[in-house]
Amino acid sequence: MISTENKNIIIHELTLPHINKKINIEFERGFNYLRGENGCGKTLLLDYISGLRKQKNALIQGNESILYINQSIFFSDRLLGRDFLQFFYQLDCVKHGKLVFEHYVTSFYGESEESQILFQLMEKQWGMLSSGEKNFLYTIILLSLQREWYILDEPFTFIDENRKKLLWDMIKAKVYAGHGIILTSHEEQKWIEEKAFIIEFTKTGVKRCN
Fold first, then answer.
1. What residues in the chain have per-residue pLDDT under 70?
2. How many whole angstroms separate alpha carbon 194 and alpha carbon 56?
3. What pLDDT sits at residue 5?
4. CATH of the structural domain 9-208, one choice from 3.30.565.10, 2.60.40.10, 2.10.220.10, 3.40.50.300
5. How far apart are CA 16 and CA 9, in angstroms?
6. Which residue of 37, 79, 159, 207 has the fewest C-beta atoms within 10 A of its own C-beta?
7. What is the pLDDT of residues 179-200, one digit of tens each?
């Protein structure tokens, strides 16, 4: 059950270093699309929201229950995909992680070919997976964990169209269940424009566009 406290993420007087942008914004619970050109500060802002970076004089509220799915994946090439799953589930104190994850996936696609392909990836060594397969498995595993907010920085990079659809289904399910999403992406998806609160980078900071 999602807490009604700290429903939104509020940022006040955050200055992004090196690019000199002042951030004062409120991310509403729901689907937020963070838009801007490469190098504008999107990932830097997400690092602060997630708590990876901190700034003494800035105020960030509502980010107590966040899962940050960023673009950096560090894992031993010799371990299996299911070892990657078990690692994160143990950090989250989730027992019987493989069964929990399989239930999460089959809740979307049952015993379909899409589900079986994903389970097959879990039995391969991490170093044998393509960049797209790593990103796909990494993102779905972390989406299966329970948080109030999910930050996804370019989650569709290198992923083929069929697997993008599966990720979109899972992201939309989080939104419809009342979770918060902050997403960056270079994908042109009509669903983003129709459903998202669009937050756009400007020369001096960010602004809400709708």
1. 1-6, 188-189
2. 37
3. 53
4. 3.40.50.300
5. 17
6. 37
7. 999 999 877 667 777 788 999 9
